[in-house]
Amino acid sequence: MYITLSSWNITFIKYRRYINIFSIEILKVHARNVHLDETVDFENIALATSGAVGSDLANMINEAAILAVKSGRSAVSQKDLLEAVEVVLGDE
């Protein structure tokens, strides 16, 4: 049983890596028209949003832009994106 569990974990880790790469690409597509500052790390956001669907990721980018504007900034920061994760996925 331990060997089966170990094999499953290795497969899951590889599968999760592909999900994260896919999430990073989706985030980049939705953020292409959004001004981002140098702190933004899509890989970190993708790890924090594992299992989120494309519409959730789009909503996170939009929410982060709203948070940045409310704060009087013209560019989205990593902090805005992390707060947006909480807003969009917080209810789930």
Tell me what the structure shows.
This protein has helices at residues 2-30, 42-48, 54-70, 78-89. It is built from 4 helices and no strands. The longest helix has 29 residues, at 2-30. The protein has 92 residues and is an all-alpha fold.
What are the key terms here?
92 residues, 4 helices, mainly alpha
Kindly estimate the percentage of residues that lie in beta strands according to DSSP.
Answer: under 5%
Count of extended strands: 0
How many angstroms does the end-to-end distance come to? 33 Å
Query: Which class do the helix and strand fractions yield?
Result: mainly alpha
Report low-confidence residues grouped into runs of 5 or more: 1-9
Chain oligomer state: single chain
Biggest sheet, in brief?
none
Globular, elongated, flat, extended or rod-shaped: what is the shape? Answer: globular
The percentage helix is over 70%
Q: What are the secondary-structure elements, in order, as H or E?
A: HHHH
How many helices? The count is 4
SSE topology sketch:
Elements: H1 2-30, H2 42-48, H3 54-70, H4 78-89
Summarize the model shown:
By secondary structure, the protein is mainly α. It is 71% helix and 0% strand. The protein has helices at residues 2-30, 42-48, 54-70, 78-89.
